[in-house]
Amino acid sequence: MMAHAADTRGRVEFRAVEIAFDGRRGPTPAVTRTTLTLEPGTFTAIIGPSGCGKSTLLNAAAGFIAPAHGEILVDGAPVRGPDPEIGVIFQQYALFPWLTALGNVDFALRRFGFSRAERRQKAMAALAEVGLRGQEKKFPGQLSGGMKQRVAIARTFAGRPKALLMDEPFGALDAQTRGSMHDLLSGVWRAHLATVLFITHDVDEALVLADRIHVMSSGPGRIVESFELSAARPRSAARFDAAQLAMRARILDLLRPAAEPAA
């Protein structure tokens, strides 16, 4: 599902981005020159082998690390550090254990200057949107993994981000819970139409969720092939059509390690 014409917030651009980390022998490249544009309201997945730099690319978009070369822009403004209008969700839920589900969402809304009553109303609505009505007073330790991630999603979308960066958010969940989270995220995203950059190592997950998939090579990472998805939503890995199955086979082929040279 593409953004409506009126949705103009959240254009993310990677312009000739290179990322390197300091090593004992000098800079070690993590991501080679990458140029990529995420149009407002679209859902983009990046998939690649472990260590290919896909999470590094997301961390640069979040403003946590700076590129060695090139720049990243959101709505034309260079990313210089973390931005409250850019939401980030990791595999680990990063919830405050001493706050309830409602308290965690309320805390994230404080930076926007809402009154206490407004924050409570928005937090309650956000929790209801992710299926947690009646769970507001529970602490993270009383919630399952899927419910914790629902709180994280509610907390992020309550602030109406123009872009949402997700780093393997469902990687720690069992298959059944992950499937329900795919349905939930798809529904919430369609309601808000924030621009999403989703990092995953799961091909089926990318095919279920994304408008566009970029496949990265082994590190130092670079995009080796891109795919457009036009299948209607909602989608299910159990009901992929012929085009999706062909795309799945091609992506798996790209991710397969190169054959060992003959002895």
UniProtKB/TrEMBL annotation:
Gene Ontology terms, MF aspect: ATP binding; ATP hydrolysis activity
Boundaries of every ABC transporter domain copy: 14-243
Keywords: ATP-binding, Nucleotide-binding, Transport
PANTHER family assigned: ALIPHATIC SULFONATES IMPORT ATP-BINDING PROTEIN SSUB, TAURINE IMPORT ATP-BINDING PROTEIN-RELATED
Family: Belongs to the ABC transporter superfamily.
Protein name in UniProt: NitT/TauT family transport system ATP-binding protein
UniProt lineage: Bacteria, Pseudomonadati, Pseudomonadota, Alphaproteobacteria, Rhodobacterales
